[in-house]
Specification:
- The structure holds three protein chains of three kinds.
- By secondary structure, chain A is of the alpha+beta class.
- Chain A is 38% helix and 16% strand.
- Chain A has a domain of 27 residues.
- Chain A has a two-stranded antiparallel ribbon.
- Chain A is elongated.
- The N and C termini of chain A lie far apart (54 Å).
- Chain C is mainly alpha-helical.
- A two-stranded antiparallel ribbon of chain C has the order 2-3.
- In chain C, strand 2 and strand 3 form a beta hairpin.
- Chain C is elongated and about 105 Å long.
- Chains B and C meet through strand 1, helix 3, helix 5, helix 6 and helix 7 of B and helix 1, strand 1, helix 2, helix 5 and helix 11 of C.
Chain lengths: 50, 221, 321
């Protein structure tokens, strides 16, 4: 449960809550992973070749 | 032929069923970044479904019922998922220069959807009937008043904000998403940036296909 | 340049792609993610602040707000459009004020709406209030002002113990007893109800009760929860839940001058964000910006399989010549 005050981080004029930082961090991580992870090659299972 | 026939002909010509629901895509559609759009759409569907449940029992329900609170939580995390994937989708389309080759309006409709989604989320936060809603309302009112719309879009008027949130704005977002997706279906997925070696070849081919002189230097069309 | 999709894809190698399966998988993934998060982390629901709570827990704050409403010095009393013709919160963009131009469409007279009308209601059942109220309304504006100022000075020295307030004795005329009566009405919860439904049975418009508590009462609670504007509050949620990270740029401007220091801060932020939003929407048509992805080169990662394939094909063509 998250019903307690959040931890806040302060750099320069930036004051950000830990949960928000985690969300943004995850966004960057997921984006980088999407860029670099190899996309699986699909097998042509059914249906004819075009 | 009458209007109906003409409209049908035009629609079918622009988007025949096999283009509306193709079972093949260009082979260059081959990266996980291409999934962010459909993940955004899936999150939107979750928002609508959980929103329907919340609307069924009225705005007070989730404050007094554990089941209600659970559906509010589903709705809350669907919002997080929606913006999470939408922004990733925006980044991906930006890095791909996806507006090229006549796809400017696809980007425009997507960006407008982003902005309208923010407004939809805003009215949602205002509809919570808790402290957060009170705070957002009284803070936000100064900004609305500053540009002269505070009386016409009154953040302190729960009824108005709720109507915008559960009906007017989701309808607008749904229409914008439809327009956006239809444009992708209509124009196809943008090609990769040409390799330097084949750059000139591509420009010449494009120019030939529309009967104009190829541009002297590299440019986006 | 109208090229059909068939023309566009001519010569392009196609591959099987199951859109419907992809959509179903995406939906299942999001469904599971969201349901799990909802079950594990729940969602915030900080209870709203009521006028009764303000009156009971911070009675001095309540009295200061009420006095400001009565004597016209309060935030809303002097605000300006759309509530009244004050100038306290009117914002300008250069010489133009859209706020002024829009005019007063939600008329609020804080002295009447927040103080005197509730007291009139109370006067119907409490004859002492009726007497004090008559005395107040019969007095001249100058006399009323004198009482209000004296009471205000006393409030600055007043102390509170729980929900009880000790105001130093002095000559405040009927203002003292009237404020005390209003405090009692607040503490009973009667003011919440009165401000909301005094003119309509059915009501969904919380303008009046919210404007009553919009100053110090809500600010004090918000500060404790890190939701103030100067704390990047717009991005934040109560508790430890994630907030609205997508508002980062909108709230950023409020942290730096001139937005943070100017009385027209909100108007300036709106204009800035309107321009930036327009730029975002029009990226495809902005020279330079629309070529940025080409220079950044992230696309090389996205299409690396395709480029590898093309290099092979081109090399084969080259060697075949």
């Amino acid at each position: 449960m998250l019903n307690h005050p959040a931890l806040y981080l302060h750099f320069w004029i930036i004051l950000i809550s830990l949960p928000n930082l985690i969300v943004i961090g995850l966004m960057v991580l997921v984006f980088i992973l999407a860029l670099i992870l190899p996309f699986p090659r699909k097998h042509v299972s059914q249906g004819g070749e075009r | 032929m009458n209007f109906t026939g003409k409209v049908r002909e035009q629609l079918v010509r622009a988007l025949p069923p096999e283009e509306l629901l193709p079972d093949e895509q260009p082979a260059y559609v081959h990266s996980y970044v291409y999934l962010f759009g459909i993940l955004t759409l899936a999150s939107f569907v979750m928002l609508i479904l959980s929103g329907i449940v919340l609307a069924l029992f009225g705005p007070q329900w989730w404050h007094i019922s554990a089941t209600g609170h659970f559906f509010n939580s589903v709705h809350f995390w669907s919002v997080q998922a929606f913006f999470f994937f939408m922004v990733l989708h925006l980044w991906a389309q930006f890095f791909m220069g996806a507006w090229r080759d006549g796809r400017g309006l696809t980007w425009v409709s997507g960006a407008i959807t982003f902005v309208v989604s923010i407004a939809t989320a805003f009215t949602g936060y205002l509809s919570q009937q808790n402290f957060d809603a009170q705070w957002i309302a009284v803070q936000g009112k100064d900004a609305m008043n500053a540009i002269g719309i505070g009386a016409f879009f009154n953040l302190l008027n729960f009824g108005q904000m709720y109507s915008f949130h559960i009906f007017l704005l989701p309808l607008l977002v749904a229409m914008l998403i439809t327009l956006h997706v239809l444009q992708v279906r209509w124009r196809g997925v943008v090609k990769p940036y040409p390799l330097p070696d084949e750059e000139q070849g591509v420009m010449e081919a494009r120019a030939k296909s529309v009967g104009v002189e190829p541009p002297a230097e590299e440019g986006e069309s | 340049m109208k090229i059909t999709k068939q023309d566009y894809y001519r010569g392009v190698r196609m591959a099987p792609y199951d859109l419907v399966k992809e959509a179903l998988i995406a939906f299942a993934v999001v469904l599971v993610l969201v349901v799990v998060f909802a079950a594990v982390f729940s969602s915030p629901d900080e209870p709203p602040l009521t006028i009764r709570q303000v009156a009971q827990q911070t009675p001095l704050t309540f009295l200061n707000v009420a006095l400001g409403d009565l004597d016209g010095s309060g935030d809303i009393a002097s605000y300006g459009p759309p509530y009244n013709n004050g100038t306290g919160s009117v914002q300008y963009l250069g010489p133009i004020s859209l706020q002024e131009a829009a005019g007063v469409h939600i008329p609020i007279n804080t002295a009447q709406d927040f103080v005197l009308d509730p007291l009139k209601q109370l006067a119907k059942i409490d004859p002492r209030v009726a007497v004090e109220l008559s005395a107040f309304q019969a007095a001249s504006a100058a006399q009323q002002s004198q009482w209000e100022t004296a009471y205000g000075n006393a409030l600055a020295k007043a102390t509170a113990q729980g929900s009880n307030v000790m105001v130093p004795a002095g000559n405040y005329g009927p203002v003292g007893p009237l404020m005390a009566a209003l405090l009692q009405m607040g503490q009973s919860g009667g003011l919440d109800g009165f401000l909301l439904t005094s003119t309509h049975f059915y009501q969904t418009d919380y303008t009046k009760p919210l404007l009553f508590i919009q100053g110090d009462p809500l600010h004090e609670k918000a500060q404790a929860l890190n939701l103030l504007g100067t704390q990047w509050g717009m991005m934040n949620e109560t508790g430890s839940w994630p907030g609205q990270a997508w508002l980062w740029l909108y709230t950023f401007w409020y942290q730096i001058p001139p937005y943070s220091t100017s009385p027209n801060g909100d108007a300036y932020v709106w204009v800035t964000m309107a321009v930036l939003t327009l730029l975002l929407i029009l990226v495809p048509y902005i020279p330079g910006l629309n070529r940025l992805p080409r220079y950044l080169g992230v696309y090389k990662l996205i299409w690396r399989d395709y480029y590898r394939e093309r290099q092979t094909v081109l090399r084969q063509k080259g060697s075949a010549r």
